[in-house]
Request: fold
Amino acid sequence: MASEVLMPSSPSEAVSLFGDGAATTVIGGGTVVMPEITYGRLTPNRVLLLSNAGLDTVSVDGDTITVGATTRIDALGELGIAGLSACASNVADGEIRSQATVGGNICVGQGHEAPRGDLQGALLALDATVRSTGPDGENAEPLEEFLPHRHGRLVLDVSFARPAASAFAALEYPHTHEYTVLAVSGARSTDGTIRLAATGVAGPAARLRSAEAASSDPAAAGDAAVGDVTFADDALASAWYRAQTLPVLVRRVLTRLEESA
Amino acid sequence: MNLTINGVETSIESGPLTSLLNVLREELGITSPKVGCEQGGCGSCTVLVDGEPRRSCLTPAASVDGAEITTVEGLGSPEHMSPVQQAFTHHYAAQCGFCTSGMMMATQAYIEGGGTDDREAIQHALGGHVCRCTGYVKIIDAVAAVARGESFDPNVTAAGTAMTNLGGMA
Reply:
């Protein structure tokens, strides 16, 4: 059991208490960390519990939306962004979505025999920027650059521009638990740039750059996407099955983006 | 830490990261929330936190300090069952009963939130709750009946059989 549990009551106190983040376990909603503690996989020494840290603000400034780290996943459905709403509503079930946080979903590590980080793909497609703090202080960087070193940092908020269009398609997989086995998110920004990303591949979500380059031809883009990622082989699906499915999901997302033009 | 549990303010001695589930069951002896998967996947531990359904196994005690917690014990007693409890007994919505507490708390929140008898909406609201007896049809029947405001003789099931041991009415 933890020897020290810290409960900041403001964002600045959270940053100060997190410090360089060394040996600190951050708990947002608890949906990821609590089972780790319960099952004895994690024995934290120093815990930062963000329940009262005031990091759950959502603000809209023109076309820029900023979502605080402890914003509940179900709140993303209220932003009116089709792809992000669909992605958020595909996470687990309603009770989990109203407890789990956006920051936690971005920062989560690889799951046990199942993928995690459902929102990462949708936020990559939106070219989101993550503001976080860590050993070198506070910074803001693209989510894609943040993901590889996410475990040592405290997310403060995520911001992105409202896209011209966005879409989401997931592999529907009947299972007792609601996992995102494989999903593709896409968005077209107001300057016409199309970004695609996949969740449920090996490691965190990844941009599908070859598919983006071929996006004018959805079938070709789907085939190209296979070369952009490494596929996970886990309890929910084999790497082979994911490789067969990814092109289909890419085609669906691109078709939906075209339809919303 | 303090919690108001089923209307009674209670001082809590458990550590700050103890799950609300363990606070309720181990410290306070409130056993309607069940220890199922303990990873948020089954819904058997769901209680209401300030009226919202929450997985108590995923909830650190410190994160709900000062909150109002409602469990099945707070819905009604065997002698004076709440509408949700009456509907679940009348419609025989419990088979082994392990998921029933969580199902009823999710139902209570659904009804308090103005939920209707639309079966798809009910499935959505109870989507995080697993019944391994697979008695979903009767569970949804029960929730729909509460949503319609139906009242029942809690001593008789919808199948016409007398209640013996479901709601402690024997």
Observations:
- The radius of gyration of chain A is 18 Å.
